[in-house]
Amino acid sequence: MLVRPRDRDVVCHASAWQMDASEDVRVKACLLPNEEDLSTIYHELGHIYYDMAYKDQPYLFQSGAHDGFHEAIGDTIVLSMTPSYLASVGLAKNAAPSREATINEQMRMAADKIAFLPFGKLIDQWRWQVFSGQVQPQDYNKAWWTLRQHYQGIAPPTPRDETEFDPGAKYHVPGNTPYTRYFLSYVLQFQFHRALCAAAGFNGPLHECSVAGNSEAGKRFWAMLQEGSSQPWPDTLAKLTGTREMDASAIIEYFAPLKTWLDEQNAGQQCGWEGA
Fold first, then answer.
1. Is residue 259 part of a domain?
2. Which of the residues 43, 66, 193, 207 is marked catalytic?
3. Considering 29, 47, 70, 193, which one is annotated as catalytic?
């Protein structure tokens, strides 16, 4: 389902499904022809292609190397949607981006990719503190805002107390859905992207790399996906990247132009917040 039906209510939250542990794969979403939903469908197709890659593994191994892998696959491909790629498929003007355009695009992406990292971390950090008993019910809301201030530098707009339950506003908390997978995926997608660019022989700035149409990058990516969960995840990671450790340095490399610009703009300024 890709279009919202007119005759009934449906859940439009995008999701991907492998129905039979074989080749019956499906996507459920309500899409519009815009940039956000283009990324959304690629994210869901990442799940689908992963499902198809490991379908010949024994049933117990038909899953991602760890949950973060599954969430990172489609987003890795989206990183190859550079201005030059989009121009090649008729979705952008074929012009070399100016420094200003590059900074604008990187700032837009950072507002998603970078700003998410502290939030992605604290969701499960709060949940684990609750599950372990480190945080008791009388302090649930206080502990939530302590973490949000420490990692995100934000505070509630009005005074909050334990008569409110602000963590419940995040679906994954009342839904008891693990969240670390998303945090890990935001690290892995850039690490995967850097490895694929190296496989493709790309030598320029990482944010300019697109591996679209490169058979060597595709072959290596597919080989990693085929492993499913048949071996320890560090072995699967090493199959593509050459290292058994997750490495966030690819994020820094990707956003290097934005970091340089921000350093210029913030020269002499006191940045950050108490507890950061």
1. yes
2. 43
3. 47
For residue 185, what are the contacts with CB-CB under 8 A and spacing of at least 6?
A: 68, 69, 70, 71, 72, 75
Residue 250 belongs to a domain: yes
Q: Which of 16, 54, 65, 71 is catalytic?
A: 71
For range 121-127, the mean pLDDT: 97
End-to-end distance of the chain based on CA atoms, in angstroms? Answer: 44
Number of domains in the chain: 1
Domain-embedded: residue 73: yes
47 is a catalytic site residue = yes
Catalytic residue among 105, 150, 151, 172: 172
What digits encode the pLDDT tens for the residues 29-82?
A: 999 999 999 999 999 999 999 999 999 999 999 999 999 999 999 999 999 999
> Does 104 fall in a domain?
yes
| Residue 179 designated active-site | no
DSSP secondary structure code for residue 274 in this structure: T
**Which residue type sits at 115?**
A
Domain that residue 227 falls in? 63-265
Listed in sequence order, the residues at least 6 apart from 153 whose beta carbon sits closer than 8 Å to its beta carbon are 272, 273, 276
- Look up 150 and say whether it is catalytic: no
Contact 155, 145 (CB under 8 A): yes
Catalytic, 66? Answer no
